Amino acid sequence: MNRNTLLQPWTNQRPHSWWQSLLVIAIFFWLMIQANAWAVLRSYDQLGLTEGSINYMELLAHNQWLALILQLLLIVGLLFGLHRLNLKVFTKRWFNRKDLIILLRTFAYVFVARMIYSSIVMVYFPDYQAPDNQQAIEGMFGHFHWFYLFVTIVIAAPLYEEILLRGLIMKYIFGKYPVLGALAASIAFTLMHSPQGFLDFMTYYLLSAGLTFVYWRTRKLEYAILWHLFNNASGYCVLLLLDRFGQYLLIPV
């Protein structure tokens, strides 16, 4: 695939696919919010809590298996809905050496860029705190079972985020305008992680831009999912080890 292909419209375009994709995205995230809210409300009733003692994280953790089942059902429903609407985001024969090289090369470039960015932030913004989304994930390790966190962070999130925020946005919503679609997908993914300022924004945008480019260049969503899965799995393993064995680490100060 040469660079000119980046400017070519996506194939498999159908009438109405753009608004159907928008509707799928909106419905999925609305149902996800409702599912978590239902699990939280059930915990609230079961524990007999008062308004002053509400803690969202603890309430969701109390019914985490219900929340997990609902989340997996939503993903199954998403895949079924895409099939019924004939919105094809996966490729039957997606693996080949050339695209794998594109993935590895882009991963290396983005990894270096993120390391340089982190160094700049540490030197020039020493008081910078991790994004709220990152702090929330770190806080989950004190409340949720490791298996719930593994499925949610490592499996579910990369799958539905890539399908909705890259697959549908780039291929169907902006299928005729690949450059605009790539920009929209990168920004949508970044904003979904609730950045509170420019530094937060760039923290997620660097990763998002890399994932977007891999999908844009290969036209195969599987590579973006693999990268996203690896990224989340790496963070998950580090946080799990710190949660389980952090007290045994001897860090000289």
Please explain how this structure is put together.
Helix 6 runs antiparallel to helix 9. The mean pLDDT is 91. The termini are far apart. The chain has one domain (14-245). The protein is mainly α. It contains nine helices and no strands.
| Straight-line N-to-C gap | 51 Å
Secondary structure tally, helices: 9
Q: What proportion of the residues form beta strands (DSSP E)?
A: under 5%
The percentage helix is over 70%
Total individual domains? 1
Number of separate strands: 0
Radius of gyration: 20 Å
Structural class: mainly alpha
Low-confidence stretches: none
Shape: globular
Largest sheet data: none
pLDDT averaged over residues:
91
Topology:
Layout: H1 17-47, H2 56-62, H3 64-84, H4 97-124, H5 132-140, H6 146-173, H7 178-192, H8 198-218, H9 221-245
Brief overview, please?
Helices cover 73% and strands 0% of the residues. The chain is mainly α and 253 residues long.
Please supply descriptive tags for the structure shown above:
73% helix, 0% strand, 253 residues, mainly alpha, single chain, 9 helices
